[in-house]
Amino acid sequence: MMALIWRDAMSVGNNIIDADHRYLICYVNTVELALQKPDEKEVLMSALSQLYDYAYEHFMREERIQQKISYPEFNKHRQEHKELLEQLLELRNKINSHYSEADIDKHYSEIVSFLRHWIIDHVLNTDRLLIPYLSKFTKNFAG
Prior knowledge:
Elements: H1 15-35, H2 41-68, H3 74-98, H4 101-106, H5 108-126, H6 131-134
C-alpha cells in the first residue's frame, strides 16, 4: 500500500493546524510500516502510542484555536476528537492485549483502512469546515 501524502487540498488555511495534520499523516505512515513487521510488536506499540500522543496534542491545539475564533460547532468537533482518541486507544489496547503476530498480519488491511479513514475523513470532512472561520485570521494564528 502506498504511503499517505499531504496534498494542498487538505489545507484548512492555518499553518499550525496544517503542520499538525502533516505530522499525523507521517505517524499513520509509520504505524503502517510497523504493521508490516508483526514480529516486532513493540515497534508497532511504540508507533501507535506516538500517534495517540500527537493526536491528543493536536486536538488540544486545534480546540484552543476553535475557541478563540468562536467556532459555532466547537462542542460537536470536540466530541468527535474525543471519539477518535477513544477509537485509537481501543485499537492500541486490542493489538497489545489480544493480537498475536498472526492476528496483526491477518487484520493488516482492516487496521490500515481504519487509520486512513480516521485521519483522512476527519481532516477532509470535519476540519475543512473550519476554513471560513479561520479565513478571518492570519495563517499563523495560534489562538
